[in-house]
Design a protein that fits this description.
This protein is an alpha/beta fold. The protein has four domains: 2-179, NAD(P)-binding Rossmann-like Domain (Rossmann fold); 188-425, Orthogonal Bundle (N-(1-d-carboxylethyl)-l-norvaline Dehydrogenase, domain 2); 443-586 and 632-670, 2-enoyl-CoA Hydratase, Chain A, domain 1, CATH 3.90.226; 593-621 and 683-770, no CATH class. Helix content is 46%, strand content 13%. The protein has 31 helices and 23 strands. The N and C termini lie far apart (56 Å).
């Protein structure tokens, strides 16, 4: 059904409409963006410059055309899908639909991006054919990065229409589509807005600072570190009263949100003063730049005055590290009381809304994971706390117990089945399997149903079936160390012996942030230079084994693939990357050069690039600039432009489909796979090229754009990329380039400035310019 939709019109060029249009273009589909006057053209200009980027590649912007909704509405007649994203005013939307009903083609689908208005209210007054082709498609902001799209189909919506939208949003736009019922706020915003309101109320009532509140209502619960107040700054504080007003106008009498909703004078003053969050002068947090300094400040909820933001040490957070969320809500402290004052009513509210807002608890949990980036949805969180513990607390507080809790008492909302599958508790009291859409393969499901073929502390090997294995990194942030390399060698041997292909993949937030700097710094501080150099050689050997493996190896990254993580992609036979893959050779930022074959592979690719002839020097220049500046691709498309991915490497838009796509790619390669032959030697320009590269670096240094140690690192990199003491008449092979990588690395890692950079990166997560 996805083939039915190949062209899109978006009406409304605000933040959401423009972002939706950009994501349609990211998917490779032409899209027309309409608004009044030149608003659409101005919006496209903003989208081109947006940071974070709205487009995955600058070229994607060329797929967007703009127009005036008053003079160009006839363009909708050729569109397969029209998405309305105008102001949240039902009368204004209805007026537009009246015009659309006369202008659209006979099979054009129309949807609204409303965040709170029920579908039945939107289609009032429209004819049956329009209602047949109408649905709600609620994207979350920013549309490129937020994975959730809630889909609401009305009783008259053609199931084929809903399926066409679902398939397009899933496979082409990369969305996790959750079917929601036609109720105010749908799923995620209905619960999320209640949670935010409860968090605001409780912080004021209990006298918590915004820093304390966000510290406990964030990572300890699997919620993003923004917590509640940081989230309000992110989405816009002025948006909250609008959403609340819409909910208060549409929620049924007796809904718990009505009793929790409060207007706070502080919010009104902040909006009036322009303190609307990150898009304004700041919000609950702001950056004070007075006196040439950058100081993060936080607002006092009682007085409205700003003070230097603190990093509070909260004992309840420490308790949660050992005892999980149950220890947090039971902690005898103001912070512990705050968490329960927010979570208790929110979890009860969520339970009271099923099946009104969605068919089952699994849909609600998925919506909150995808829409609010919670690690656990409300019912998963209840199970982590303990359903009977939550029930006891609610009963002690005198909170009316939703029927769903009675059904879960003594059992829980989820259970693991004997075959490794997961079942959820239905509203009828029976458990039903959590089903994945066709074409979705999750490693988490594989792991529940089987044991690894082999594993150690840093990695594991799994059987995906059909002769394909999966190498998973398991260390913190998927850093790479000696145990990773050992497991990699073992995994290749097992796969070559008993299987057809191997995929390198994991379901962490990031594919890999590179080598374990902690080990390098520790070893350097006690002078274990031989061990460090041995680890570099082991990494080179392991990655070379990938490149020349007797079976195809497909890397499937998502999130960050940095340093050694990026070097795996360079050595794999193919890459199937999630669209949101951010890869780069960033070693210069910590004072070293890529030494697990990154310099070598980038050179070999650049020299072999027939689209860019002109001898080795232009290729050396390109690679030098990319690595010396530690360029990180901000999408898989950009990774191709930078040379980290090949032109024929695959891109998967939906994260949930990445493993299945990588497995399919591996099996296709295995059909007539021939192991690679050793790379042909290349010719590099030698010392003269190194001198030319350093002249450019010296120019940057004179302008204050390169530090003293930047120059040292750049000179080491130039030595590797120019081929050392070779000259243009000599052939240089892989082994020689790898040896140069090791030599330069060994020199740089002994420098005090490099160790300072590593220590700073480990402590702050940011590079040090020294």
């Amino acid at each position: 059904m996805a083939e039915r939709i190949s062209s899109v019109v978006v009406i409304g060029a605000g933040v959401m409409g423009g972002g939706i249009a950009a994501q349609v273009a990211n998917a490779g589909m032409p899209v027309t963006l309409l608004d009044r006057g030149d608003l659409a053209a101005r919006a496209l200009d903003r989208l081109r410059k947006a940071d974070p980027a709205a487009f995955m590649s600058p070229k994607d912007a060329d797929l967007v055309t703009t127009g005036d909704v008053d003079t160009d509405l006839d363009r909708v007649v050729e569109a397969d899908w029209v998405i309305e994203a105008i102001v949240e005013d039902v009368a204004v939307k209805r007026a537009l639909y009246e015009r659309l009903e006369r202008a659209i083609g006979p099979e054009t689908i129309v949807s609204s991006n409303t965040s709170t208005i029920p579908l039945a209210m939107l289609t009032e007054g429209r004819g049956p054919d329009f209602r047949r082709r109408f649905c709600v498609t609620h994207f979350f902001n920013p549309p490129r990065y937020m994975r959730l799209m809630e889909l609401v189909a009305g009783p008259e919506t053609d199931p084929a229409v809903a399926e066409a939208v679902r398939e397009t949003a899933d496979r082409r736009l990369g969305k996790g589509v959750v079917d929601a019922h036609d109720t105010p706020g749908f799923i995620a915003n209905r619960i999320g807005t209640f949670w935010i309101q409860a968090g605001l109320n409780a912080a004021i009532d209990l006298g918590l600072s915004v820093e304390e509140a966000d510290a406990v209502m964030g990572r300890p619960l699997g919620i993003p570190k923004t917590g509640i107040f940081g989230l309000m700054d992110l989405v816009g504080i002025d948006l909250m009263p609008q959403v609340s007003a819409s909910l208060m106008a549409t929620l049924p009498e007796g809904d718990a949100y009505r009793t929790h909703y409060r207007e706070h004078a502080l919010i009104g003053r902040m909006i009036a003063d322009g303190h609307t969050g990150r898009k304004g002068k700041g919000g609950f947090y702001r950056l004070n730049r007075e006196g040439g300094r950058r100081e993060k400040q936080a607002i006092d909820l009682a007085t409205g005055a700003y003070h230097p933001a603190e990093r509070p040490t909260v004992s309840a957070v420490e308790a949660a590290k050992a005892g999980g969320p149950a220890a947090l809500i039971e902690h005898d402290s103001r912070a512990g009381r705050y968490v329960w004052a927010v979570l208790g009513p929110t979890l009860a509210y969520a339970a009271s809304l099923v099946p009104a807002i969605a068919a089952d608890v699994a849909a609600v949990d998925r919506a909150m994971r995808l829409g609010y980036n919670w690690a656990y949805g409300p019912f998963e969180l209840i199970d982590r706390i303990g359903v009977d513990r939550v029930i006891a607390r609610l009963e002690a507080d005198g909170v009316p117990l939703p029927p769903l809790f009675e059904a879960a008492r003594g059992r829980g909302f989820y259970r693991q089945e004997p075959d490794g599958g997961v079942a959820f508790l239905g509203t009828d009291g029976d458990y039903r399997p959590v089903e994945r859409p066709a074409g979705v393969l999750l490693l988490a499901d594989v792991k529940r149903a089987a044991r690894p073929l082999t594993r150690n502390a840093s990695a594991a090997l799994w059987d995906l079936g059909d002769g394909v294995t999966c190498l998973e990194f398991t260390s913190r942030m998927n850093t790479l160390d000696e145990q990773t390399m050992a497991l990699l060698a073992e995994a290749l041997a097992i796969t070559a012996s008993d299987h057809r292909a191997m995929v390198v993949y994991n379901e962490g937030e990031n594919f890999s942030v590179g080598a374990n700097l902690g080990f390098v710094l520790f070893a350097a501080n006690i002078g274990l230079w031989g061990q460090i150099e041995g680890a570099v050689k082991a990494g080179q050997d392991a990655y070379r084994a990938i490149k020349y493996a007797p079976i195809p190896v497909v890397a499937a990254p998502a999130g960050m693939a940095l340093g050694g993580g990026c070097e795996i992609l360079l050595h794999a036979h193919a890459v199937q990357a999630h669209a949101e893959t951010y890869c780069g050779l960033v070693e210069a930022g910590v004072g070293i050069v890529p030494a697990w074959g990154g310099c070598k592979e980038m050179l070999l690719r650049a020299v072999a690039d027939r689209k860019r002839p002109g001898g080795p020097m232009p290729a050396v220049n390109r690679v030098f600039e990319t690595i010396a500046l530690a360029k990180v691709a901000r999408s898989a498309k950009e990774a191709k432009a930078l040379g980290y991915l090949r032109a024929d490497d695959g891109i998967t838009m939906n994260r949930d489909r990445l493993l299945a796509d990588a497995k399919a790619r591996a099996l296709a390669l295995a059909e007539d796979f021939t192991p690679r032959q050793p790379a042909r030697p290349i010719r590099l320009p030698g010392p003269s090229a190194r001198t030319a590269l350093m002249l450019a670096v010296d120019g940057l240094a004179k302008r204050g754009l390169a530090t003293a140690h930047d120059r040292v690192v750049a000179e080491g990199l130039a030595t590797v990329l120019s081929g050392g003491d070779t000259d243009l008449t000599e052939d240089i092979g892989e082994d020689q380039i790898a040896r140069l990588e090791r030599q330069v690395f060994a020199t740089l890692v002994r420098r005090e400035e490099t160790l300072e950079r590593m220590e700073h990166m480990l402590e702050t997560g940011k590079p040090l310019r020294n």
